[in-house]
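Morning F.,

Quick status update on the modeling queue. The single chain you submitted on Monday has been processed. Sequence for confirmation:
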Amino acid sequence: MESIVVNKIIETCSKVCFENVSLIKNNCHEISITAKLMCALSSKFTDWDVDIEYNRDVGDVKRPDIIIHKRKRKGRENNLAIIEVKKNACARSATEDLKIICDFTTRGGQYCYQVGIFINILYNKIEYCVVKNGKIANKLCTHAFVVLK
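Structure tokens below.
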């Protein structure tokens, strides 16, 4: 199931980037792309709540870019995916986001999301890394999308 979720998220992100390449070309802030991605994911995960910068725990300063979950329910079965998105991420920034994703996907942790994905958006491709059970599950992968002039 996790691979289906990951594939659906990566394919959706690639499509969103392709359809909104002007946001990338014009160096718009990543939140512009993240908002578009959240809307697109909402139509792909219709039985789930898809939220952006969600912070249900008032005292907790961690706010993932996008989460796919069941609001007001706890447990791994209600926390499907956490997504962190960056544009042209430097190594330090990517490492910080991967640490957040690891924390959110750790079994027995506070949230224990089933899967986490770090997405780095570049001009004509996305790079991504999958996290499961608090550990990086794969090397950095690349998914290209065609950019029309």
